[in-house]
From TrEMBL:
<dbReference type="InterPro" id="IPR010982">
    <property type="entry name" value="Lambda_DNA-bd_dom_sf"/>
</dbReference>
<protein>
    <submittedName>
        <fullName>LacI family transcriptional regulator</fullName>
    </submittedName>
</protein>
<dbReference type="InterPro" id="IPR028082">
    <property type="entry name" value="Peripla_BP_I"/>
</dbReference>
<keyword id="KW-0805">Transcription regulation</keyword>
<dbReference type="Pfam" id="PF13377">
    <property type="entry name" value="Peripla_BP_3"/>
</dbReference>
<keyword id="KW-0238">DNA-binding</keyword>
<dbReference type="InterPro" id="IPR046335">
    <property type="entry name" value="LacI/GalR-like_sensor"/>
</dbReference>
<dbReference type="InterPro" id="IPR000843">
    <property type="entry name" value="HTH_LacI"/>
</dbReference>
<feature type="domain" description="HTH lacI-type">
    <location>
        <begin position="7"/>
        <end position="61"/>
    </location>
</feature>
<dbReference type="GO" id="GO:0003700">
    <property type="term" value="F:DNA-binding transcription factor activity"/>
</dbReference>
<dbReference type="GO" id="GO:0000976">
    <property type="term" value="F:transcription cis-regulatory region binding"/>
</dbReference>
<keyword id="KW-0804">Transcription</keyword>
Length: 361
């Protein structure tokens, strides 16, 4: 029987045409390269099956076999209206790549919109053989009442969301959206902005509410009171009405900056600003909560949400949970960095103070 070929750092370096030193630093998490290069090295290492000594030790400690005898099958639950979203694509990619590293598979299963009772959930679960899966991954944007019913299915589960209020027995893995909002507000404050308008629904999903809370708390910590009527926090009822609402609000506002809480609205905000004779960043600075780089505004100032990495971490956590079923449940938050783009203009604090005095006169 032929032996599995040992993968070395030099093989990874040769394939990527990088130095051995760069590959070694990338896999050890050391600085000295772009995030793009670090990501390429990590992807190549996973694809080729390379493991550092620390990774092998971690798998051994967590009782996760590197080459399992039993190939496991998981179900990835996603709503039908969100299955094509870029957020879910990134999450699914992370989950499936990590599962594949260990020889396992993940199948995407659509949630129909009409599931509104426990009986309907059970029938749907039977139709998709959920009882024979080794575990479930519950992706974001599942309605709370449906999510609650899914959390009661007798299977290991990973919830890609913030913990529900009733705190069920489930491992939650999610990017740190509160930290991302705080980074965004502080970036604007550091550049002299004190009159910041928040734009984004605050009630549809738990993550939306947490964004608003983090914004309000960070502003208050800076001595800046927050009143909801000074911001645009209503639900989305259509692009036309949304655009008109934002146009009126920004035209009547003395804001110097916008924090956009919903990534789809970034391009629309540009359109609204143009329609009222304001440009970004000359008249209004903009920071937007984005899933990834925006092709429309590649230099957009934004926090980095590690969505793909969250998918990988969730898959790791599922394998750990199967190997350690009696251990306490955990809520895991992944923190990202911040992209200092060109959509935030620095303003002088004394200029802002003079403007306020002028208005008072």
């Amino acid at each position: 029987m032929t032996q599995k070929k040992k993968i070395t750092l030099q093989m990874i370096a040769d394939e990527l045409q990088l130095s051995l030193h760069t590959v070694s630093k990338a896999l050890r998490g050391l600085p000295g390269m772009s995030e793009e290069t670090r990501h390429e090295v990590a992807v190549a290492a996973r694809r080729l099956g390379y493991r550092t000594k620390a990774q092998l030790h971690s798998l051994n400690v967590d009782h996760i076999p590197l080459y399992p005898l039993n190939k496991r099958r998981f179900k990835l639950i996603v709503t039908s209206d969100a299955s094509a979203s870029r957020l879910n694509q990134l999450l699914l990619q992370g989950v499936q790549e990590k599962l594949a590293e260990h020889g396992h598979t993940g199948e995407m299963v659509m949630l129909p919109p009409a599931l509104n009772s426990q009986a309907a959930i059970e029938l749907w679960a039977e139709q998709h053989d959920l009882a024979f899966a080794d575990g479930l991954f519950l992706l974001p944007m599942i309605l709370p009442q449906v999510e609650q019913m899914l959390l009661h299915l007798p299977l290991p589960r990973i919830l890609f969301n913030f913990p529900p209020a009733d705190d069920p027995e489930v491992d939650c893995v999610i990017w740190d959206i509160e930290g991302a909002v705080r980074q965004s507000v502080r970036h604007l404050l550091d550049n002299g902005h004190r009159r910041i308008v928040y734009i984004g629904n605050t009630s549809r999903f738990r993550g939306f509410g947490l964004r608003w809370e983090a914004f309000s708390d960070t502003m208050r910590e800076a001595g800046l009171p927050v009143s909801p009527e000074q911001h645009i926090t209503a639900g989305f009822s259509g692009k036309g009405s949304w655009v008109r609402n934002v146009q009126k609000h920004l035209a009547d506002s003395d804001a110097t900056a916008i924090l956009n809480g919903v990534h789809q609205h970034a391009a629309w905000i540009y359109h609204v600003c143009s329609s009222i004779g304001k440009s970004i960043p000359r008249d209004l600075s903009l920071v937007s909560i984005q899933h990834e780089e925006d092709a429309f505004v590649p230099q957009l100032s934004r926090p980095v949400l590690p969505i793909y990495e969250t998918g990988m971490r969730g898959a790791e956590r599922m394998l750990w949970r199967l190997a350690n079923p009696s251990q306490p449940y955990e809520h895991i938050y992944l923190q990202g960095t911040f992209v200092n783009g060109n959509t935030v203009r620095q303003i002088r604090a004394d200029r802002s103070a003079r403007s306020q005095k002028d208005r008072a006169k």
